[in-house]
């Protein structure tokens, strides 16, 4: 264990506007401490007008990279010199790494989503997935499901045109379910995901008629504040297999940690209780 940082410390961080709500410093800080690394991970509040200059300046220091959260994910992809297939497909980057030949943009949200679902052991090849939403998070989730070889994909969004555009780009075989018919689609779905902003901060819950759902369906909510949304509470009450957005947050952070600090994030002691405490303590 290092006693404070040395001049050789590796550092990275997360840039957002705002960034005060971000759990990433707690998450990364826990892993850095557990491994006793000479490293730091910092929050950076950066307005959109200063984002590009900030990243380019940071890339000229000994920083190894940067996580990017709202509203900078598209700008992060646009300024990078290279991008991974995941970042290109999603059209946004949440992970920038700095290299002698330039800035590499990646997107680990899709991997984080798949990691969150892993304990439920989904059999993608025989599953129908229903994605609710067609914004940035939905793009990552649709990309993840398509690359995992899901058998059937259904997309439902309040604005149907956005669902159609998303399908045309990432999942041409997907079925589009009118928003008012989303409950009926539950009967077909083995995996149901909320990728809308509904339920965030306990407002405007996404209410579903879970009595129509398949028994044993896996239900995931990308929202994690609150941890148990009305969407998840209803699914849980109906005896379905529920997974909250915190597991996706942890899952998306692991590839970043490896890229920044050159170590796998330790599984033990688990970071989830640390984040639960942070969420509970948050005003
Ligand atoms: P976004 O691009 O702004 O998309 C918002 C989505 O919510 C759209 O599909 C929008 O539908 C829908 N929506 C908003 N208000 C609605 C309403 N009143 N009724 C029906 N639909 C409504 O946002 P995003 O970046 O995709 O984020 C979505 C959620 O995912 C957020 O809560 C975010 O915190 C979460 N997220 C979690 C993680 C994680 O690690 N767990 C990672 C990324 C994002 P329209 O197209 O009709 O407007």
Architecture overview:
Helix 5 (109-117) crosses helix 10 (245-261). It is globular, with a radius of gyration of 19 Å. The protein has 283 residues and is α/β, with parallel strands linked by helices. The strands form 2 sheets. Strands 2-1-3-5-6-4 form a 6-stranded mixed β-sheet, with helices on both faces. A 6-stranded parallel β-sheet has the order 9-8-7-10-11-12, with helices on both faces. The model has no long low-confidence stretch (mean pLDDT 95). 37% of the residues lie in helices and 19% in strands. It has 11 helices and 12 strands. The protein has helices spanning 24-35, 51-59, 73-79, 85-90, 109-117, 136-147, 160-170, 182-185, 230-237, 245-261, 272-281, and strands spanning 10-16, 39-45, 63-68, 82-83, 95-99, 102-106, 128-132, 152-156, 175-176, 191-194, 218-221, 241-243. It binds NADP nicotinamide-adenine-dinucleotide phosphate. Residues 109, 112, 133-138, 157-159, 162, 195-198, 200, 204, 222-224, 245, 248-249, 252 line the site of NADP nicotinamide-adenine-dinucleotide phosphate. NADP nicotinamide-adenine-dinucleotide phosphate binds at residues 109, 112, 133-138, 157-159, 162, 195-198, 200, 204, 222-224, 245, 248-249, 252. NADP(+) binds at residues 133-137, 157-162, 245.
Assign the structural class, choosing from mainly alpha, mainly beta, alpha/beta, alpha+beta, or little secondary structure: alpha/beta
Rg, alpha carbons: 19 Å
Q: Largest sheet, if any? A: 6 strands, mixed
* CA distance, first residue to last residue: 32 Å
Based on Cα principal axes, name the global outline. globular
Average pLDDT number: 95
């Amino acid at each position: 264990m290092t006693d404070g940082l040395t001049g050789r410390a590796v550092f990275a961080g997360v840039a957002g506007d705002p960034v005060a709500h971000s759990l990433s410093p707690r998450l990364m800080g826990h892993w850095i401490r557990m491994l006793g690394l000479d490293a730091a991970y910092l929050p950076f509040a950066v307005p959109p007008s200063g984002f590009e200059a900030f990243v380019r300046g940071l890339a000229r220091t000994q920083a190894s990279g940067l996580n990017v959260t709202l509203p900078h994910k598209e700008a992060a992809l646009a300024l990078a010199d290279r991008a991974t297939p995941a970042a290109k497909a999603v059209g946004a980057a949440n992970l920038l790494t700095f290299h002698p030949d330039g800035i590499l943009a990646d997107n680990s949200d899709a991997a984080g989503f798949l990691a969150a679902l892993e304990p439920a052991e989904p059999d993608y090849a025989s599953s129908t997935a229903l994605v609710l939403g067609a914004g940035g998070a939905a793009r990552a989730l649709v990309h993840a499901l398509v690359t995992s070889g899901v058998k059937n994909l259904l997309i439902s969004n309040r604005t149907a045109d956005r669902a159609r555009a998303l399908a045309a780009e990432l999942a041409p075989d997907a079925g589009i379910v009118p928003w008012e018919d989303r409950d009926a689609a539950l009967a077909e779905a083995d995996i149901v995901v909320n990728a809308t902003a509904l339920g965030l901060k306990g407002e405007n819950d996404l209410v579903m008629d879970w009595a129509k759902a398949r028994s044993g369906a896996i239900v995931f909510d990308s929202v994690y504040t609150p941890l148990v949304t009305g969407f998840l509470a209803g699914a849980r009450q109906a005896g379905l297999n529920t997974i909250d957005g915190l597991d996706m947050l942890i899952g998306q952070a692991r590839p970043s940690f490896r890229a920044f600090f050159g170590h796998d994030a330790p599984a033990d002691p688990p970071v989830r209780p640390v984040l639960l405490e942070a969420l509970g303590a948050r005003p």
